[in-house]
């Protein structure tokens, strides 16, 4: 496949940064995710990826986040071999190729039309796989999805960008349409939302994070069929801490910060079932 010239506005560079972080990980001797699909995609894009500033250890945190959601995905599909996967706000993530689900799984990648158009240039078709070009909050896209199997909803890196009323309306619709399922996403605390918004604003970047998660059980009240089954404090996951602790000092700081409740709750990986 020939390299494609990709011209992106600043807000779309987020998709490339996430892809590049996984490609960087794939190039190291002991990778976290080992996503050679991401590495191949980066090689086919005519873009100077060195312009992307991978600050905060993105080449570690991004593949570590993806690996955890991959693990949840594999566990769900092992328990539900005939099922549907809704990968919401998929960006350029290659999860469907990493997981390689069986023929009885229907997999839908959903994102804005310009993102889906880029995916179509980069990634091949496969059995049981469809791309849907729409905003996830335009609920009419769900009309074409059969609701006759258990569903896994993956919303990695998405929910913080949605307005709460739109996000809960989407989840209520999904829980009404499917007989059972799970929802997995990374929830940012309200403190994290404010921190990132201020940081990006100071750098002249336009990043609109709006939905912060306080008590994860609050979503159970807003979407009555959901029940929280797992809440993982991402920033204190042992493998992540070990990878980020590149020297004695950073290791000590990771240990100190990990004892602070506000820090532990900045980012949580949340899994619900219905």
Automatic annotation (TrEMBL):
Does the record's keyword annotation contain Glycoprotein? no
What's in the keyword line of the UniProt record?
Methyltransferase, Transferase
Is Methyltransferase one of the keywords?
yes
Gene Ontology terms, MF aspect? methyltransferase activity
Per the UniProt entry, what are the Gene Ontology biological process annotations, in alphabetical order? methylation
Quote the EC number: 2.1.1.-
Q: Which domain of life is it from?
A: Bacteria
Q: What is this protein called?
A: Class I SAM-dependent methyltransferase
């Amino acid at each position: 496949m020939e390299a494609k010239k990709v011209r992106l506005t600043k807000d779309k560079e987020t998709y490339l940064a996430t892809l590049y972080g996984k490609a960087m990980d794939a190039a190291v001797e002991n990778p976290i995710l080992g996503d050679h699909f991401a590495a191949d995609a980066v090689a086919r894009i005519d873009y100077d990826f060195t312009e992307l500033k991978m600050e905060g250890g993105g080449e570690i945190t991004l593949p570590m986040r993806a690996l955890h959601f991959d693990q949840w995905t594999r566990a769900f599909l092992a328990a539900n071999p005939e099922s549907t996967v809704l990968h919401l706000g998929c960006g350029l993530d290659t999860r469907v190729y990493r997981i390689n689900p069986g023929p009885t799984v229907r997999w839908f990648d959903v994102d804005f039309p310009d993102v889906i158009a880029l995916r179509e240039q980069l990634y091949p078709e496969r059995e049981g796989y469809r791309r849907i070009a729409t905003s996830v909050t335009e609920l009419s896209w769900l009309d074409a999805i059969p609701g006759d199997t258990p569903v896994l909803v993956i919303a990695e890196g998405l929910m913080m960008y949605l307005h709460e009323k739109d996000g809960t309306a989407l989840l209520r619709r999904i829980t009404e349409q499917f007989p059972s399922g799970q929802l997995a996403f990374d929830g940012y605390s309200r403190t994290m939302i404010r921190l990132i918004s201020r940081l990006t604003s100071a750098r002249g970047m336009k990043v609109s994070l709006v939905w912060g998660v306080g008590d994860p059980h609050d979503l159970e009240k807003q979407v009555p069929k959901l029940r929280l089954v797992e809440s993982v404090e991402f920033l204190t996951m042992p493998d992540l801490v070990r990878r980020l602790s590149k020297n004695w000092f950073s290791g000590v700081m990771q240990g100190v910060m990990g004892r602070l409740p506000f820090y532990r709750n900045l980012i949580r990986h949340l899994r619900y079932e219905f």
